[in-house]
Amino acid sequence: MRAFSHLFFSFLVILFAISCSDAFTRNDFPEEFLFGAATSAYQWEGAVDEDGRTPSVWDTFSHSYNRGNGDIACDGYHKYKEDVKLMAEMGLEAFRFSISWTRLIPKGRGHINPKGLLFYKNLIQELRTHGIKPHVTLYHYDLPQSLEDEYGGWINRKIIKDFTAFADVCFREFGDDVKLWTTINEANIFAIASYSEGFAPPGHCSPTSFFNCSTGNSSTEPYLAGHNMLLAHASASKLYKLEYKSKQRGSIGLSIYAFGLTPYSNSKEDEIATQRAKDFLFGWMLKPLVFGDYPDAMKRVWGSRLPVFSEEESEKVKGSSDFVGIIHYTTVYVRNSTSTTPSLIPRRQDFFTDMGAETICTPMKHSSTLQDTPRIEYIQAYIGAVLNAIKNGSDTRGYFVWSMIDVYELLSGYMYSYGMYHVNFSDPSLKRSPKLSASWYTGFLNGTMDVSPQDITQMQSHFSGSSSL
Ligand SMILES: *[C@@H]1O[C@H](CO)[C@@H](O)[C@H](O)[C@H]1NC(C)=O
Ligand SMILES: *[C@@H]1O[C@H](CO)[C@@H](O)[C@H](O)[C@H]1NC(C)=O
Ligand SMILES: *[C@@H]1O[C@H](CO)[C@@H](O)[C@H](O)[C@H]1NC(C)=O
Ligand SMILES: *[C@@H]1O[C@H](CO)[C@@H](O)[C@H](O)[C@H]1NC(C)=O
Ligand SMILES: *[C@@H]1O[C@H](CO)[C@@H](O)[C@H](O)[C@H]1NC(C)=O
Ligand SMILES: *[C@@H]1O[C@H](CO)[C@@H](O)[C@H](O)[C@H]1NC(C)=O
User: Fold this and answer.
1) What is the reported pTM?
2) What residue segments make up the domains of the chain, in order of their start?
3) Nearest-angstrom CA–CA distance, 39 and 2
């Protein structure tokens, strides 16, 4: 498997991009800037067959592999009050979570499940009572299995209508209290992982000699799925703007997964390959959102495999995002594909061969203990870089840590954890314990702590004295 996929296993890299001596505090950011943390429905809620919820493609997918599943996860469905209390104690200003489509609308369309509806109303109410702004993601990899079985989910245009109807229920039922909506999470990498590489649900790809999916076509389906995602996003967004925005006064956007991309060498071809990778990975989604069409570099390579926007669709997609969510964890090197030794295994045609460039990971470090100093250094460096960008004119509005609490991870199950709160998944009560990063974020958010290295050292000695784990 190519290096790219390892990124899913180890998100944590330590960035030394900014100097730690440039201390800053919460108050250096605009007051309306939002600091939060995130989870998603399947990874946090558990209770997969309770109160009327039916399976999503993610349930099916996780049960076909031996790396755990979200059947129980953090049991957020029952423990949401406890978790919101932890968020409040941390001083979180916002919480990003997703709605399980099959909890709300078990058959994918039609009948609304009153218990699912009540759960999300209660969660949103609990957040608001504690002064935490809900940021809702409508779709986070968990398509109703019934729609997958009926017509193939995202590779069929029928998804646009069903997704829009699901979004309509969410806007109508939750929109008075929710002002921030992301339609689809990591749309670009979702299309690649699910339809080119096959390691995310529903697990489609073309056969190779070393890995076979049950079905799929890596040279066509990712583009078809991506196209339908853009159209579904645009359709939901248009509905929001026509029917809800004037009274609910919220914003709606799409999120993409973004690596930092750096040429592997200072050669011209690696520099060009890096630009091409930017076009393929980001321009694929961003150019239509801004200009209503795909980047020329992609059109050249895709040829007839490229879905085409009709004039009407192009107009609909153009300007359909009030904001763009950037999911970012790490930076990779980019090398022109043909400048390397040809692979011994015959390559299938997929997203990455089309891109004509390979991504090479930098060494990564992972920290799963309660004393997660590397995580603090990472978050601190990241927030510092965001502040620099804002000072430099970037209109960035918020920052969310992934994740608020250890959750079930798509590719690594419970093996790696990214939470600021540890969850003991072997303990029937799923006990939550703060990691050092939770204390750091608390201090940063309450403005009593700037982020100089001495603070971390001090906190660490205090923490080891009081830690029970
Ligand atoms: C994928 O679809 C293309 C275009 O229809 C076709 O030429 C190719 O053979 C298909 N590949 C596989 C692996 O099915
Ligand atoms: C995948 O399927 C192809 C034929 O479609 C076969 O040649 C190959 O050996 C299979 N690979 C694995 C790992 O089963
Ligand atoms: C870089 O890759 C492209 C496309 O894969 C290829 O056409 C080109 O010859 C390569 N350039 C060099 C200098 O190897
Ligand atoms: C600020 O913007 C300039 C011009 O785009 C760029 O060269 C510089 O690297 C940026 N600095 C930071 C800290 O982002
Ligand atoms: C997790 O819970 C189990 C069962 O209650 C317990 O035996 C174990 O010591 C706990 N692990 C940690 C690290 O607290
Ligand atoms: C601010 O956060 C720090 C670090 O977690 C904590 O020790 C302190 O009690 C908090 N202060 C207030 C006023 O909440």
Assistant:
1) 0.91
2) 2-258+288-327+367-464
3) 27
